[in-house]
Amino acid sequence: MNLNLPNRISKPRKFGINVLIDNGYPLNFFKDVIESFTEEIDFVKFGWGTSVITKNLQQKIDILIHHNISYFFGGTLFEKYLQQDSLSKYKKLLNKYNCEYMEISNGTIDIDNTSKASYIKDFSKDFKVFSEVGLKDSIKSEEMSPKKWIKYIQEDLDAGALKVITEARESGTSGICRSSGELRIGLIEEILESNLKIEDIIFEAPNKKLQPHFIKRLGTNCNLANISFSDIIALETLRLGLRSDTFSTFET
Questions:
Q1: CATH topology of domain 18-246
Q2: Angle CA(175)–CA(177)–CA(181) in degrees, nearest 5?
Q3: What is the pTM assigned to this prediction?
């Protein structure tokens, strides 16, 4: 089409990744999206504990494997197994589904980040671990200072996390967002101005209020997660400056 567009890193990529969230989509819709947009999808997360009650989970995983798309279960499922003192059973579940990746979080249960980091260190012996920083409770989350966010992100990376995901929930109302849905820009700026490497961080950005901010601030190839299956092409147009929200961001 002879358009001068930003350089989008091609797959397989370690930066500029899209993490879609499956919150229980029907199998045929899931298959259609994966087959239609394979090149735009890096990971699929089976949200929170949906993998436990998804009857066609293995079929979905088979589709992802066929299209060379990686997958992992939501961190809340890890927390549920931890709460019930059943992490050995959780490892068996991960092995049953040939999970190369997994997520560890402490957004729901009350464990300190140092304890979470110890689990990261343990699980990273057998899996590639994504950790998540931030709380599900929006009130408690807003009380967590930027200094703590930075400390916890670094602690998780030091423990062996492949990348750290910043919490926003699928609704965009906690973690790096206020309960109103407003992005905590001051928090984001302090994270970006720290010594952390931006490629080590995945920002949850489940809606069009959040996605343009990160793309305009960090560029085309920022890491974004909690992307709806119905939004993947819309997100790619944002990344390439083909939508009004980022139209003037990438001038040539």
A1: TIM Barrel (3.20.20)
A2: 135
A3: 0.95
